TrEMBL record:
It comes from Flavobacterium agrisoli. This is succinate dehydrogenase. It is a peripheral membrane protein. Residues 531-665 form the Fumarate reductase/succinate dehydrogenase flavoprotein-like C-terminal domain. It comes from the Bacteria.
Amino acid sequence: MSLDSKIPQGPIADKWTDYKDHINLVNPANKRNLDIIVVGTGLAGGSAAATLAELGYNVKAFCFQDSPRRAHSIAAQGGINAAKNYKGDGDSVYRLFYDTVKGGDYRAREANVYRLAEVSANIIDQCVAQGVPLAREYGGLLDNRSFGGTLVSRTFYAQGQTGQQLLLGAYSAMNRQIGRGKIKMYNRHEMLDLVIVNGKARGIIARNLITGEIERHSAHAVVIGSGGYGNVFFLSTNAMGSNATAAWKIHKKGAFFANPCYTQIHPTCIPVSGDHQSKLTLMSESLRNDGRIWVPAKLEDAQAIREGKKKAIDLAEADRDYFLERRYPAFGNLVPRDVASRAAKERCDAGFGVNKTGEAVYLDFAAAIQRYGKEQAHIKGLDENDSALVTKLGTDVVRSKYGNLFQMYYKIVDEDPYTTPMMIYPAVHYTMGGTWVDYNLMTTIPGCFSIGESNFSDHGANRLGASALMQGLADGYFVLPYTIGDYLAPDIKMGPIPTNTPEFDEAENNVRSLIDKFMNNNGNHSVDHFHKKLGKIMWNKVGMARNEKGLTEAMEEIAALREEFYRDVKVPGTDKGFNQELEKAIRVADFLELGELFAKDALHRNESCGGHFREEYQTEEGEALRDDENFAYVAAWEYKGKPSDAVLHKEPLNYENIKLVQRSYK
């Protein structure tokens, strides 16, 4: 199969507008006769479901949580990017486009990224109209802050709860349509297979997670908005329920899976504390606006801190290495996530780590507290030399900007981040890879669309902070509602799609067969036993740094672990009701396939770019070394029975508006 990205002709600034002017439309009366399934109700799925229902389509929305409000989008804390130039600091649609392509290490599709930047401003207007309480300046205008990889302030935020507030906006829009009967909501349901009729996606098989009932649902199109696959590493910043099952099921039915090795390691996470953990906690990138990252400059000081003989506050400024500011003076602590993560790993690997495991660096707010405190004292006409007063005033400012994040850190670590530096270390956070989609956000299966983090389209090899919320809402509110109409226009006279067909029979039988296999398997080990083993293979050999030997071993070990899993997993209970071990078994089965494809993709890409860092391919200064001559393409994998047999298809990345150069943040 050839890959047709369907990118419109013409200048990049005009592509989306001209495209919308000429695509097919469905009139309001005909929309009432068309059904759309939306799987996942986070920011992408929720905004899509609400908008499609508002347009008049009949929407069936599915989420495995008890409410769409529990989607993992709530964990996106720091903000959402938009090119509004409210600060007057030189921002523009083009600059957001450029920063995103550069931040992704020149491995994103130009046309999609420009469209994302173009519609970003509309997202803010939409959310304000919904009542989302975005932060405001003293005069009442919306406030902005900086994020990594940019030299402007374009990130809109709601303290450290931006994702939650945006999700509530989408949820309120959904609720209006649920009340009107235009959205039929299926909470506690999980999609377990895609149904294809005459080459087109026409429905899904879902399991009611409360009753265990297997259900058939038909539609004229299916939209996957189920998020990313970071939990293939077991320990990640993702919610424990986040999984890749919906995206992987459509992959096995013919949707190509693109760039699985592009996975983001976030630099500001609370470090691992032991094998007892089931997930990691993210400290928002917004903290890097005011927090300074450092390690001791001397090995003996780092060792003394690890042994509990010294504390961070005992070290004078001259004995601290603010390594991001030293290595990247132009961007300092606000370099992109992949750059900051590798820099922290390098310092820790060299012996400068500061917690008991040696895998942590400091994120320090002392300088910011003093700076803000003196500013407030000056404004209020108070004594700027009163250290206690300045500290109190500065702490109040920091609390107003990041208070909930500081509180969360205190509750987890039991240390006060206002008086002692936070400890952070990189952890798996976001997946830039995902199902391949064209300009319309449609996969290689006609009628099956993929939006938000579940697709690959906008971030290249590394996502800039505050761009996940932007992409999810852009896809759901402003892109898919146009492009899906173009696809559905010929179907207006079809009528409802029946579910009593051989295609639905086959898909349901496949699901029942898998469930029966797990329930009747008399193994000796829990699902988590295998998931943890997979996670260790992934982190040790397919994590922040990769090499040919480790990746080859990872593929073999994952394949062997998958065989052991099917042979020796034990799923207690029954499939006739609520059974979270069964849910996990189905998801981990998918991770055990995805993990192998992940390693295969990383092995074939003989270069370093963004979140994909091959130790064999780096500059003398330890930066990612791309190979644009041989690898400037999207790697889209076709399923052929097992991951090791997957077939590679290449979509060339043609840069007509941005020059390919070695990325630099110095």
